[in-house]
Predict the structure.
Amino acid sequence: MSNIPLIMFLVFIAITLGITYWASRRSTGSSAYFAASRQIKGWQNGIAVAGDYMSAASFLGIAGIIAFQGYDGFLFSVGWLVAYLTVLLVIAEPLRNAGKYTMADVLAYRLKPRPVRAMASLSTLTVSTFYMIAQMVGAGALVKLLLQGKVGYNQAVIGVGILMIVYVVFGGMLATTWVQIVKAILLMAGTFLLSILVMAHFHFSFSEFFAAISQVTYHDAKGAVVVKDFLQPGLRYKPPYGPLDLISLGLALIFGTAGLPHILVRFYTVPDAKTARHSVVWAMVLIGSFYIMTTFLGFGAATIVGPDFIKTHGGTNMSAPLLANALAGSIFFAFISAIAFATILAVVAGLTISATTSFSHDFWTNVIHSGVERKPGEEVLVARISAFVVGAVAITIAIVLGPTANVAFLVALAFAVAASANLPVIVLSIFWRRFN
């Protein structure tokens, strides 16, 4: 049965490469390559936004944190969900009205175009690189673990990087969008099935489920048996600085999400601002449902699999796959593992397209050449070349850092830069007339 995860990985890769081939025949011209010709429907863009946003950190990381830190782990997911209220009420519609391909299109109206585009491009590349390296490190460690030694860490990172480059170089935004849609549907289906199986284990009784959560047994660092109530706060955010840490995290997630370049570029793929607003509502429904279900995954792993077993069989990030294996055997384990792999591929593709779009459109065309595209198709060509460079840099750094790198720190850094650098200048540009 150990070959099943590999087979499912290959099936998903074949499907996404088919999507890329189909999209490559339609991605001619700047509008088609950078914004999918602005023909993506609201519900499609909403699913794609959700697919772009629900990363491996969400699927594997949040479930793992809940499995080890209970209620405090659940608070992580709240910030990600609330963040989309900021996107819906503040960002989506004005951004779609004022921009063309990137967030710098909006900023260039109020500020000196060349300096602000240079800084916006630098910020986009910084955020995308931090986020992408975290995903690549996670991909390498995850694939190595799930394929049980058939593929090494370095080979896994290189494989994910090559696929990411293929999606972006040949398929552009259209291929990236449909890869994210497929991934989001698979992720929601897998999470829903796993949540149902968890509740079936407790005979669909919430009282039985919560009773088990209040009596989680594991061994502490000294080897002593500990019984903890995972419904009570304090396992992660402990006095005196725990509440401050939680507030800081919430601010970074809520404001960082509204400033993430790979989320913002999605609003340029729809025909108008009304559709952009509708797509955010679709995304909120899917993301909200997903994060509610991560509580079933995390608490289910804590009560059914147990923190001790998870710790010795791959660590925190393996909580959801190990839960799938415990409840439905190796085939479902392989399915959940393949979804985790699909999650990583879709997110790195979204990050790459946002980084290359910003470099090509903002820096190459508008900074270096003062807004004049010298030859037809040059902007797209530069974007494709930069995709190779971005991919090579991400692969190299992920290999140098190795599988033990602190990916949570890299993701937090990406959110912090987006929250403190990108969002304030976007909001001020949109809403303050005297901003200069």
Q: What stands out?
A: The mean pLDDT is 87. The first strand starts at residue 216 and ends at 219. The first helix runs from residue 4 to 24.
